[in-house]
Amino acid sequence: MTQKKNVLITGGAGFIGLHLTKLHVKRGDSVTIIDNFFRGKSDPDFKRVVEAGDVKLLETDLTTLEGWNKIDGDFDYVYHLAAVNGTDLFYKIPHEVLRINLLTAIYSLEWFKNQNKKSKILFTSSNEAYAGALEAFNKLPIPTPEDVPLVISDVKNPRWTYASTKAIGEQLYLHYAKSFDLRTVIVRPHNFYGPRAGFNHVIPQFIERITKKTDPFPIFGADDTRSFCYIQDAVEAMLAVMESDKTDNDIYHIGTTDETVISDLAETLFNISSWHPKKLTIKKSPEGSVKRRLADVSKIEKAVGWKAQTNLHDGLVKTFKWYKDKF
Fold first, then answer.
1. Which of 58, 185, 213, 281 could form a disulfide with 218 if both were Cys (CB 3.0 to 4.6 A apart)?
2. How many domains does the chain have?
């Protein structure tokens, strides 16, 4: 039986944050969630988790050191997930994406080195950090390893504000760790999906169209590919790199080894729902979308023995069941 841990999760009301909270509660850990509900939701799922487990909710401004200093307690694990995300927001409020994400990253480290230095802190980066390399040079190795160049292809394009904050955040965590003898770890999520993932991603959008029997059925970027990782596998990977000394001050991709064509994703969901449209309407990929995405996850497997266990069909069955009554 593992020893009870005291855990801090910023952005704990979000998709990844709440599933991570549930994992730690199941282990018997004590969890403090920080969230301002800008994107996270105080929905029934969130309330059940908070009320059922040893969970404390704190609302504070993480863009100031004063806000961080309101956090009370010594934590064994600190997960910094809080950030402004969402492609629509990159275009609507790019200045806030930059301001909030950079300040929270900086102050997370300032607070950590002053208040919680003996534990370990995880920074959630993104595969967006290297997506600009494909746009700039039309070339990325597939599967893509962690050591590819991080490129902002056009600083004038607000599309890349989020990616900029993740690239700089990675540098902050690596160089603070070296300068102040901290234990950090960085993860780059690759297409996490599952219950409660929001409604602006391809899987919930497909489920909504299926539920409403949209016909003709539109598919954007039908021949694009992604490697979809079920959320339960994903948070177990985050816990694994947090627990291991081998992962200190390094970067790890979290994803699967399966490259899925978007049109095949749609077909799998049609089969799960037992409904097929009579006609498909194939449309161009969304603006800023990359053609292929497949993470090289050999590094995390070698370090901690983690591999995704949930196949896409089984994960989609669980996801469809959760979403089908939400539209």
1. 281
2. 1
